[in-house]
Amino acid sequence: MNTAINTNIEDYRYFFIALVPVLALYQFIPLVNLGYLFLMLIIFIKVIKDNLIVEINIQLLLVMTAFILLNFFVGGTKYLSITSTLNNTAGMIVFTIIAIVLCCPGYIEPEKLYKACKVVSIAATLFLIYQFLAYNLLDVTVWGKIPFLTQVEDGFTSMENGRPNSFFYEPAHFIIYIMPVYAMSIIKKEYWLSIFLAIGTILSTSTTGFVLLFAIPVIIAIKNSISLIITSGVLLIAMGIISQLAVFTEQYLNKLGLSSLLQNTRLFGTLDYFQYFSIKEWIFGIGFNRLAEWLYLNGISYGRNYSNSVVFMMFSFGVIGFLIFIYLCVILYRNIQYEYRVMWFILMFILASDQIFFNRNFLYLIIWIYAVHKKEDEVLELVDSYNVELLR
Question: pTM to 2 decimals?
């Protein structure tokens, strides 16, 4: 009886983890949003249940600690005021505490995570379709925010331009949420769900979503030549059909043009800021989340505190931080079960198209990465086979 109760309590964590990207949009106390509050409660219950023994991801802790120390060093030596440095560093520490526990290999079961996120993805997509129909057929704008809660930052404004965003700040965040579920639905051959999420992706008008919509099935099918041929054929037909829709020509083609990509702050639009970097800034960066402040201090009136995660990494932590970031990407890739490596590609694409580092979306994606982490016996087999090769 007690075992059954404990199992049910344990299973609740998947429900809250699945809701974090939505709940994290709202305030609780400084540095801890509503989503993080529930995750901390999960960790607290786990610590009590395990008699104060906490199992953590040491590898992730070391990587995140390196970023935290680098940020504190740059902030403390470069800027007169220490307030922003302390706030940013504290936020990074809160993120790290949550991540090293929830991303401990073996703690999250992929099947249970998939079931929980599938429910939220279906609900979010249904609401997005409702937003789309209400706006285009009834000329009514339906907002996705929870009215009695206070937002952490400005958002939910895309509906003003007819771009449905479901329960998220913007369409791209909706895409970040559903793409791991979309990938899992293809792997598990739940094609009804794949098609349903694809419809939501197209209606969201997210360029990131449109590219991933076609890239994910190809990545999954690469390991089998026959599957790859069939998948490519189906996707080409689907692309031909979608290209005839007005929503495609109006929203996608303009954003996929070369000039738009070069000017887009999510891709290449902020690369010219590097021309103002000193040698020291190239090496150590300008501090996490300090781009707008740095531009102002250097007399550059344009620009804002935004870029994709890869460029933002270079801005924040310089070459040193970028090398640490590459190391993190490598260890994430090497430790994923082969059949789920599409999750790594989803993470890489999002990092290259949006700034998610040290925020709720990054946490959500790396939880998925570690949920499909290689099992301990697989790692041991790889080590044994490596040792055998060395002895030959």
Answer: 0.85
